[in-house]
Amino acid sequence: MSHSETAHSTFTLERHYAVPPAAVFSAWADPKVKARWFAGQHAEHDLDFRVGGRERVLGQHDGRALTYDTQYQDIVADERIVCSSALSFDGTLSTLSITTVEFVPDGDGTRLVLTEQGTYLDGHEQPAWREQGTATQLDALTAELETTGTAG
Questions:
Q1: Which of 40-44, 83-87, 97-101, 109-113 has the lowest mean pLDDT?
Q2: What is the rounded radius of gyration, in angstroms, for the C-alpha atoms of the chain?
Q3: CATH number of the domain to which 88 belongs
Q4: Considering its fold, how many domains does the chain have in total?
Q5: pLDDT one-digit tens code per residue, 2-37
Q6: Helices 21-29 and 127-148 meet at what angle, rounded to 10?
Q7: SS3 category, 91
Q8: Which residues, other chains included, contact 147 with Cβ-Cβ below 8 Å and sequence gap of 6+?
Q9: Which domain, by its residues, includes 130?
């Protein structure tokens, strides 16, 4: 009999963007824009951004097939996104998570607050790796918004 391992972790990341909440929100909602900063250039990305809609990323990580499936549970335009996600490597489920992204007006810009609650299965992914990867994606969003000036 194999031994199963379950770890739980919550992290919160914050970023400030010098554009209004609508522009930052749009970078999450627009399939072409989100594919650039979220999925990377070598991954397949599909986004149906609506409550009940799904997002899927198919790619490679360290030579393994990566599948990231998300379902959108709650969307309040320019204010909040809540989704649930499953991450698998080579067809083995490794992480389940609930993510809340808040877009808070902050002067002329936006304070983004991302909170993720995760369940990590059998050591396939570590909470610190997930936090680092999410931070890298938010850094890519920063670069996207700095390059375009808006998300459009």
A1: 40-44
A2: 15
A3: 3.30.530.20
A4: 1
A5: 678 999 999 999 999 999 999 999 999 999 999 999
A6: 120
A7: coil
A8: none
A9: 6-148
Residue at 108 is within a domain: yes
CA distance 114 to 119: 17
Is 1 a domain residue?
no
The pair of structure tokens assigned to 76 is 């309040």
Q: How many CB atoms lie within 10 A of CB 4?
A: 8
Do 47 and 34 form a contact (C-beta atoms < 8 A)?
A: yes
Residue 90, number of CB atoms within 10 A of its CB: 11
Residue 29's φ and ψ, nearest 5 degrees, are -90, -30
**Assigned domain for 24 exists:** yes
Q: Is residue 96 part of a domain?
A: yes
Cβ(137)–Cβ(118) under 8 Å?
no
| Ramachandran region, residue 61 (left: φ > 0; alpha: ψ -120 to 50; beta: rest) | beta
DSSP letters for 33-56: HHIIIII-TTSEEEE--STT-EEE
Task: Work out the number of other CB atoms within 10 angstroms of the CB of residue 6.
Answer: 9
